[in-house]
Write a structure and sequence with these properties.
At1g16640 B3 domain; 2 domains; 26% strand; 414 residues; alpha+beta; 8-stranded mixed beta sheet; Endonuclease, Chain A; disordered N terminus; elongated; 10 helices
Length: 414
Amino acid sequence: MARRRPAGLPTSSGEVHGGRVQERLREVALRKPHSLTLSHGARPGLPQLTPRPFLTRRPRLRDVSATTVLQNDLRPAEILAALEDLAVPDTAGLRLAVAYVTKTGCDELIPRLEDRIGTSTWSAIPKAVVTSFDFGLTEPEALRQLRDDHGFSIRQAVIRGPSFHPKLYAFTTASGLQVMAGSANLTRAAMTENSEMAVVTSLADETLTAFEQQWDELINASVPITDAALAEYAQQRKTIKRPVFPPDPNPKPRPIPSAGDLPLFPDEVASGRLDPTQFSSFWVEAGSMSSSASHAQLEMPRFANRFFGYSFSQYDSDHHLIGEPVLTAAGQVWDDRRLTWHGHNAMERLNLPTAHQGGFSYPETAILLTRSAGQFRLRVAAWDSDVAKAWRSASAQLGKVFRVGRTSRLCGLF
């Protein structure tokens, strides 16, 4: 049976009252800017705030548990996965502070968060983003999309220093505040393929109080972005000399040989040339998933069970239960997913959680399973998406892309 659990890491002792935090978020989203003055040396077209003292005392970080997230070419889309895991149905608010926002970054992340949180809850909760116009890298259309399509309060940081540089994603839930902070802006490349690192943690008690005070300071050092400001910024971007390397360059996945030139996964394992246990991630091209009415039975090659730690090899014409690997996704755990051998079509099958059970829609996707502490994190991406291409590229770099069987479907390890 599926069991619910909070996303992210366990919170410290003490709880945050979801209603109180949600009310605070609504106040922030609607807050009018504090008194502004233009100072000598202000950036063209941008106001600067009257200096204010910073009063927040830095808390001592005692007993704060955290986990790290590393993303690179062989660990693609880990930032996106970590943020998906933080998005749970009882999310009560979302706050972002990022230097740059692009439309492709929003397209990569925001629909996934809405899907995991639920459309009705997503529409109702307060959401805010504080960003910058530095170097003209934030895209006006991305901010309009966040505001008009998803109800975000959009704000521009007004700073006295050289640039605005935080990368913060904070999810308020019934169990507290779940935070990811690190190097990733809200861009497609940062979500999927850049080398990035972040820390995911839960805040409560003294650290939560300090966070709320510091967030207030961040808000006080920002102004709402109006239509007029967006229009002015869009004109300014035409004359701004931007960095040689844009925040979202076109992805260049490593080419993969045609299916006919690829080795068969079962043959590689049977010959001893491939040991699936030496890899942490295993993806399979889903295809039509037509083997069941629920479209949730993933057909995998013989010996796929080795990745899950089994040693089944009784490949006869009968039906056999191999095991029940524990699957996780976005705060849910499934310990009743059956991995079986079906002799009539000579395939192993993994019974995945349906969308109704908190899982995903699987046809025509890439399905990724990542081993972690004896469990397997389930992720899904459209087959032609940048995320799925990044998974294939990681496997291609290692020479670990295979045919599932006698069909053209692919699978890979990294």
